[in-house]
Design goal:
By secondary structure, this protein is of the alpha/beta class. It is built from 19 helices and 20 strands. It folds into 2 domains: 232 residues, ATPase, nucleotide binding domain (Nucleotidyltransferase, domain 5); 223 residues, 2-Layer Sandwich (Nucleotidyltransferase, domain 5). It has a 7-stranded mixed sheet, with helices on both faces. Strands 3-2-1-6-13-12 form a 6-stranded mixed sheet.
Length: 491
């Protein structure tokens, strides 16, 4: 097989990377050529993303790829986190800075929205899990607060679409990222006019939808001149980072669930059609767009965010720990000190995460953790218990019984959580690849350019390219009492 190279630009909520994917001999090798921080910017109490800086880092990533000898890149693609968006004028000017999803302006917005459109109607149209951070509610906040940018805007572009616009000048909305907005009809895969009408939102802002694997445009001439890159194609991939991550799950089949583990954990299955009924509504499951005709039926879980915040708070006190050190403390700590509902709004963005955990425990009549190791262990155990509860619910909603779990993303490196997941679910767990999002981004580019036949072939290539670690369940009987507690306090 000849060598093909593709450039993936992967933005996370805390950092971003430019990664060259080198496809050769039925394997993909990833080479990181640029890494940069990303963070919310607090201006007068509101949280924003610095889109100009994110664009500059993207251009630097292209320059670094060229500087490292990758002059024959065939295409570029961008993926980011979901729900956030920016606004563009008719004459192609970016209007302000995009709000960040943790901004408090959406507090209380769900109740206001459901006065305009019934909750079950919104779910039946979109199949999307209710979270106050969803794009529909962010846009509703802007409209109801009479944000002046709305009148000046020509198009609303989600974060990867906004970056693709800066790369190409094309205003398009990629399908997988659009599906996270709760503005898209899950079955027709088109913008749902009823939602815009009932919530009095301007549908004129929405751009034409492109599917993963389609060409968005070519690299803008100004970028070609400033970087030395050829005028390559910019491809629509699973531009929601989880869509790209799921595309690269090696063991994914009808009997395998995935967990994309990072700041958020996304746990679910891949289906051909949305699953929308009374039970999925009750359990708040989501039907997000996948690549190449697939649906990601899943639940968002708060994930490693709670531990990230605890780590940061201890650093502010002058006590620095690596994640390996925190896991070591957790491994030695007493088990099952408490169970928290990791998805409680208490933990979305509290002033102090440790205090939030303590208050939750007191409210639910549980003992407080006493050491740093007990706090970390309790969060990891609670995450595993949440996974177990959701696996049971997926089994009740799907035609196929889950027999194994494949964990991908940065959280797949957490061996203690992987083992807890196997223990809490009673299922074998496969961990890896860590760089699933980059692999999925590269796979779709390669499929679009005719270098890989299809998704199944791509997943086999990923399996050939990485080492997958296996975990077998142990001691499930010791988890039984905590499973009962979890079922009482978790939604």
């Amino acid at each position: 097989m000849s060598t093909s190279k593709f450039l993936a630009i992967d933005y996370g909520a805390s950092s971003g990377r430019a990664i060259v994917g080198i496809l050769k001999d039925n394997k993909i090798r990833l080479e990181e050529v640029h890494r940069f921080p990303n963070k919310n910017v607090n201006v007068h109490g509101s949280l924003y993303w610095d889109i100009i800086n994110l664009y500059e880092e993207l251009v630097t990533g292209i320059k670094n790829a060229i500087a490292k000898g990758h002059t024959n890149i065939e295409s570029i693609a961008v993926d980011t986190w979901g729900v956030d968006f920016g606004l563009i004028t008719k004459d192609n000017q970016v209007l302000g800075y995009p709000f960040a999803y943790r901004d408090s302006r959406t507090d209380g917005i769900l109740e206001k929205a459901f006065k305009l459109i019934p909750k079950n109607e919104l779910y039946n149209l979109t199949g999307i899990q209710f979270m106050q951070i969803n794009s529909v509610f962010q846009l509703l906040c802007m409209v109801q607060s009479k944000n002046t940018l709305i009148k000046s805007a020509d198009k609303l572009l989600f974060m990867p679409d906004l970056l693709n616009f800066l790369l190409t000048g094309e205003k398009k909305s990629e399908y997988t990222i659009s599906s996270t907005s709760q503005l898209l009809n899950a079955k027709t895969k088109k913008w749902e006019s009823k939602i815009f009408e009932k919530l009095k939102l301007p549908q004129r802002l929405m751009a034409d939808i492109v599917m993963p694997g389609q060409k968005i445009g070519e690299l803008h001439q100004s970028i070609v001149q400033s970087t030395g890159m050829n005028k390559v194609d910019v491809i629509a991939v699973g531009s929601h980072d989880t869509a790209s991550a799921v595309a690269a799950v090696p063991n994914l089949n009808k009997n395998c669930a995935y967990i994309s583990s990072g700041t958020w954990s996304l746990i679910g299955i891949e289906t051909d059609e949305p699953i929308i009924n009374k039970k999925t509504f009750e359990y708040n499951f989501t039907n997000e767009g996948g690549v190449l005709g697939k649906i990601r039926f899943l639940r968002n879980v708060m994930g490693m965010w709670i531990i990230q915040r605890l780590k940061k708070e201890w650093e502010n006190e002058g006590k620095e720990f690596t994640y390996v050190q925190l896991n070591s403390l957790a491994k030695k700590a007493s088990p099952f000190k408490c169970v928290i509902d990791v998805d409680s709004p208490d933990f979305l963005n509290p002033e102090n995460m440790l205090n939030a955990i303590n208050e939750f425990c007191l409210r639910t009549n549980q003992k407080l953790p006493q050491t740093k190791g007990e706090y970390i262990r309790s969060v990891l155990e609670s995450l595993a218990l949440k996974y177990g509860m959701l696996i049971e619910r997926i089994n009740s909603l799907s035609k196929n019984k889950i027999e194994k779990i494949n964990i991908v993303g940065g959280g797949s490196q957490n061996e203690l959580l992987n083992q807890f997941t196997a223990d809490a679910t009673g299922l074998k767990v496969y961990a890896g690849p860590v760089e699933a999002t980059a692999f999925g981004n590269i796979l779709l580019q390669a499929i679009a350019k005719g270098k890989i036949k299809d998704l199944l072939s791509g997943r086999e290539i990923v399996k050939n390219s990485v080492k997958i670690k296996e975990y077998s369940p142990k001691n499930k009987d010791k988890w039984e009492s905590s499973i009962k507690i979890a079922n009482k306090i978790m939604n």
